[in-house]
Amino acid sequence: QVQLVESGGGSVQSGGSLRLSCKVSGSTYGTYSMAWFRQAPDKEREGVAAISGCTTVHADSVKGRFTISKDNAKNTLNLQMDSLKPEDTAIYYCAARSGSYPSLAANWYTYWGQGTQVTVSS
Fold it and tell me: Which residues pair with 34 in a beta bridge?
């Protein structure tokens, strides 16, 4: 079992920055793919960014503004979010699964965190 706990959400004005973190604990032996997803009210869950090893993938909607990274020493997944827009407002979730494919598809992932709210005002 893998446990994921997100932190770092909050409220910010348009153009601002936030840094989300996801603390990973449990049975994390081997290679894992990890990702950030978001879900706005009345919308489908959307893949934002994913990482496996040194390979990263970012959705077109956040490319150049968001950066996913991992701190293996701290067992933490991070998402640096810059130039935030009101349309980035959503609950952000951390996800993980055993494997080496950094997918942006929600059904790829086995483990999920509880989510953290990000609100961007204009």
Answer: 51, 96
